Amino acid sequence: MFEALLASLPESALACRALYDVASGGYHLPLREHNRRLTRAEVPQYRALYPQVHYDCIEVPVADLLYSLVVNTRSARILETGTSRGFSTCHLAAGARFVDERAAQVITIDPAPAANLFFEGSTLAESIVPVRADSLRFDLTQALGTGQCDFMFFDSLHTYAHLSAELAHYLPRLKLGGLFALHDTFVFDDLGLVVLAMLGTGRAEMLSLPTHRRHAEPARCPGMSIFRKIAPIQAGDLVFPDLQGITAGEQHCVPDPAAIVQRTGGLFVGDARYAAHGMHRGGPRGPLSPALLEPAQAASAAAGQPAVGTPGSRP
Ligand SMILES: C[S@@+](CC[C@H](N)C(=O)[O-])C[C@H]1O[C@@H](n2cnc3c(N)ncnc32)[C@H](O)[C@@H]1O
Questions:
Q1: How many angstroms does the Cα of residue 207 sit away from the middle of ligand 1?
Q2: pLDDT (0 to 100) of residue 314
Q3: What is the DSSP letter of 132?
Q4: Confidence at residue 287, expressed as pLDDT on a 0 to 100 scale
Q5: Residue with the nearest Cα to atom 3 of ligand 1?
Q6: Listing from the earlier edge strand, what are the strands of the sheet with 174-183?
Q7: How far apart are CA 187 and CA 169, in angstroms?
Q8: I need a surface site. Which of 127, 189, 253, 256 has the fewest CB within 10 A?
Q9: 152-161: string of b/e by CB count within 10 Å (b at 16+)?
Q10: For residue 147, what pLDDT is reported?
Q11: pLDDT of residue 262
Q12: What is the pLDDT of residue 186?
């Protein structure tokens, strides 16, 4: 399996993998705007040339997981938002081609992808449709006709407004039973709220899992939430709550987490299944806390204190 992945990845993607810093989960890469074709032969040199690590590509273990998810679900038609250097794209395309080389198609959308995308000029590129656009302004019909996607990966603009709009826009085009994955749902409070709102629709089941990178708060990692579409979704069906004011990303949220709780309290606290409070802390969770925090028992035992975020309580 992974032999097949490694055999099908382009040279730049293989070199990128070799530039992964296992301790931090970053990459010894040039700045995104200086992205270049990479070769494995030059890896030792790059490590010296770019001692500062960058975090725009998903972690290698997450890329491996995406490949595995695509293969396990026999997904050939895939949508991705957030191409960047094309690292995740390469792994999605490798999986899709392993499933069905002829039908494999990865549509990847980014208004400002990096130069020298890792898949450019490679065999994988035959199965990749790069779209230079805002993901909210692209009509999948242009690339897919009336067909449906088997798998979707969302990793673009990390705000509540954007991700929720992406889900509303694209999920009608995901087949029933298809998986969709959201990266960074543990580390961006905005995205955690999208996860909770999506769960609240009852149209998908979900597993959130920690991921390998450690670069911000020690208690938090990017994380990934993997959903399975379990009910039909028509255009216009998904209407996410308007959380105006929480849409500017983590810069806005993290300094004032109480404001998130205040604005979302009615949605996620009390009788609702999940509570938003405590999301910013990354610490222990209560029975109604978001799935995005550490399990209560383990975390509180480690900290020697009771879990926070008890049902219905407000800070
Ligand atoms: C975290 S990077 C994606 C990393 C990529 N998935 C990988 O693993 O290599 C986020 C990307 O989202 C793109 N982006 C920002 N706004 C966007 C939008 N409105 N639509 C689609 N992509 C967007 C950025 O240009 C950036 O390249």
A1: 23
A2: 26
A3: -
A4: 44
A5: 82
A6: 128-131, 105-109, 77-81, 149-154, 174-183, 224-229, 204-209
A7: 24
A8: 256
A9: bbbbbbbbbb
A10: 95
A11: 56
A12: 79
DSSP string for 4-72: HHHHHS-HHHHHHHHTEETTTTEE----GGG-----GGGHHHHHHH--S-B--SPPHHHHHHHHHHHHH
Residue nearest (by alpha carbon) to ligand 1 atom 25: 112
The DSSP H or E segment spanning 247 is none
Task: Name the residue with tokens 């959380």.
Answer: 243
Any ligand 1 atom below 6 A from CB of 32: no
Tokens 């949605």 correspond to: 267
- Atom 7 in ligand 1: which residue has the minimum CA distance? 57
Residue 139's alpha-carbon distances to 156, 178, 234, in angstroms, are 16, 19, 15
Where do the structural domains in the chain lie, given as residue ranges? 2-49, 60-229, 250-303
Pairing status of strand 105-109 against strand 128-131: parallel
Residue nearest to atom 14 of ligand 1 (CA): 156
Q: Which stretches in the chain have pLDDT values below 50? A: 245-255, 257, 260, 265-291, 293, 295-315
How many CB atoms within 10 Å of residue 198?
A: 23
Q: 131 in helix, strand or coil?
A: strand
The residues, ordered by sequence, that sit 6+ positions from 142 with a Cβ below 8 Å of its Cβ are none
pLDDT for the residue numbered 200 = 81
Q: How many CA atoms lie within 13 A of 131 on its CB side?
A: 22
Ligand 1 pocket: which of 29, 79, 84 to mutate (most atoms within 8 A of CB): 84
**Domain 60-229: assigned CATH number:** 3.40.50.150
